[in-house]
Amino acid sequence: MATILEGPERSAPPAAPVSAGPAPATEAVLDRTCDFDRLEVGEILAAIHAEDRRAVEAVGAVLPDVARAVHALVTVLEQGGRWFNVGAGTSGRLGCLDAAEIPPTFGFPPERIEGLIAGGPAALARSREGAEDDAEGARAALRARRLAAGDAVVALSASGRTPYALAALETAREVGARRIAITCDPESPLAAAAEIAIAPRVGPEVIAGSTRMKGGSAEKMVLHQLSTAVMVRLGRVEGNRMTHLRPASDKLWARALRLVRAARARSSTAPAAAWRTRSPRRASGLSALRARRAPRSAPGAATPRSPTRWRGSRGRPADRRRSRRRVPP
Prior knowledge:
This protein has eleven helices and seven strands. By secondary structure, the protein is α/β, with parallel strands linked by helices. Among the domains are: about 60-235, Glucose-6-phosphate isomerase like protein, domain 1 (Rossmann fold, 3-Layer(aba) Sandwich); about 240-290, no CATH class. It starts with about 40 loop residues before the first helix and ends in a 12-residue tail after the last strand. The relative contact order is 0.14.
């Protein structure tokens, strides 16, 4: 007999009647794993692995849509706008994770790319499933950050029906911000509400409805494709080297040294003491490395974009001095 546990997130019944109509695509039952609970461990893992491959194939089928989103986000960031990843549950955590990784990896101002999750920062460490229904929470979070026409909202929801994600796109539409959706259901309301919908068809999960599996894997792949391609086009990568990284740890300082040595922007015989003390000269070496590299000019080759010149702690481009009050996350 099935047992449904009522969690602490919701102490009262839903305000509106809950329909038990046709299940969305992400709630479908996978026939291949109907006997999942009877399998040996090796068989369980093989079944999960086989389905994970389908997520990779599904993402490959929507690469043209990912490319459209990359071009849109590059334009937004070049013009001084901001990029918000917005979602609930697993989708929200993945969006916050990718947004948090961009500043240290690519040296990009953290206030320009932010992740918002239903339930706030506490939901990153502990699930607050009821928070996904808080549509007003998404609107309030974006309004507090003064979402504007020059910004972009990337809403994430595997099912494409999460009220929090839908409200984020609605708010973006109201102010004229760019609207991008990442979902696993091309026919979902979220896909319909977006200018650009990235919707890999991953199919039913090995455990019906558990979209932290294939659905989450597909969303993560799309997110790191977006962020990496956008940063490359903004000139934050030289060749395939992380030349704009922020060397805030021993590992990253060592990586910075290897980058400088590889480019011969500094002598590899520089005093070891200078590197051990994290001399500013090592950061200067990275700057020299960037200056040495000339854009490719081969016919038909994409020309890497020059990094935007930032000024001030707010990270605004020199030619865009929009005044916005910073709101703590």
